[in-house]
Amino acid sequence: MNNKIIISYCPNFYKITNFVPMDTDTITGKIIKLYQEYIFRIDINNPDDIKTIQELDMVVGKYIEDIIFRKEFQKQIMRVRIRKDVTDMLKEMIKSIIKIFYKYQEETTKIIYVSRWI
Question: What is the per-residue pLDDT across 50-101, written as a single tens digit (0 to 9) for each?
Fold first, then answer.
């Protein structure tokens, strides 16, 4: 029952879980596995957990769809370091994944100023 509720918060779930990466791509399979592992262990009564899985679903959905983001993500994910004193490694990894997306989005979104001719 909880799984159906969780999947209802993740509109990209089937697109993500049915994605077949190329043989040479070792990272994508791990990202999908982390995604599945994390979303099915959250507390559905915790609004922060719900918000996190919605963000994660959006990020991994973008990862699957956008090859440019995927390449940049794969470079960035190799630089992620998680402290040894962290109690929940999976949650920290998920936070890092989401952070990479927002950083990418910030860097690629161009700010366009409309100049005014006098």
Answer: 999 999 999 999 999 999 999 999 999 888 888 888 888 888 899 999 999 9
Q: pLDDT at residue 111 above 60?
A: no
Q: Could you please report the per-residue DSSP string of 24-69?
A: T--HHHHHHHHHHHHHTTS-TT-HHHHHHHHHHHHHHHHHHH-HHH
- Tell me the C-alpha distance between 65 and 85, whole Å: 35
Phi, psi of 117 (to 5 degrees): -85, 135
CA distances from 78 to 2, 25, 102 (A): 33, 13, 17
Largest CA distance in the chain: 63
Question: Comparing 117 with 75, which gets the higher pLDDT?
Answer: 75
Copy the structure tokens of residue 80: 């992620």
Contact predicate 42/3, CB 8 Å:
no
